[in-house]
Amino acid sequence: MENEIIKEKKPVVLSAIQPTSIPTIGNYLGALKNWKNMSEDNDCLFAVADLHALTVHPEPAKLRQQIYEMYATLLALGLDPEKNIVFIQSMVPAHAELAWILDCYTMFGEAQRMTQFKDKSQKHADNVNVGLFAYPVLMAADILLYQADYVPVGADQKQHLEIARDIADRFNNLRGQTFKLPEPYIGKIGAKVMSLQDPTQKMSKSDTNPRASVFLFDSPDLIMKKFKSAVTDSEAKVRYADGKDGINNLMSIYSGCTGLGFDEIEREFEGKGYGDFKVRVAEAVIEEIRPVRENFERIMKDKAYLLETAEQGAQRAGRIAYRTLQKAKKKVGLIVDR
Ligand code: TRP
Fold this sequence. Notes:
This protein is mainly α.
């Protein structure tokens, strides 16, 4: 009888997303859609990484709006804020505090080797700030504060997870066991969605071509228009093959929304033209994201609920984070017994 009460401890999974513009269907099918499934079997924390967004100097009013929107998006996905901890990074001061301590346990050379830092400093040579350099250390703090077992990361963040492990390992070796070393979360692999206008490139939030990316809260009409103008090829046959990047991409998107395999999709569109196919893909996308959009619109109208939920999320996250922070402060010799 008593055994029934003892709950087995579930793995801790931490995920975070920057509040830069509304996610694309690429972000959704590739990652966000899986967050909901993940939250069933794990103790999940989901964060809006707003401090990370400061590295690119966003316009303040716009950033504030984007933080609200991203937090509302997380709730709109159906991530239950009672079962999971859904929070905004800057509302938990321990992140910035631990980041400083970890800065002192991160070597200049290893931070300098981060590919994303190198790419970003090349692309934005006019704004290579120290925050951009220390970005992976803040990310390490996000993860280590919660003693996370797993972090779901895409290819572009893998190196950042590795440096988080290296930093944790160095700290543990020098100061005694303090942080759990996080592992990458290997879940169901989401679809990799490419640009609708240049299907050799990943679909990006910041593409300057307005038809290249479909955003989660685009209107159904706009989604239809974007898919109708998607780049394809001249074979006029819906099949998955090398060199058919545009069609392969539309097939992946369709598969991501419907769960159908490529062979089933080929059969469904046997003898049909690309026009029909594009319309069906657009319809499938519209249907797939409709509930998320409806939730989002409802939540955005209720600022009081949004703020209250964010406040509760921050308090719950903060309690866990504080324990780890105190431990780390003590280990490095700071005064914690006050
Ligand atoms: N840097 C991540 C990105 O841009 C976002 C992020 C911040 C993150 N902190 C994190 C991801 C902690 C995982 C864990 O995608």
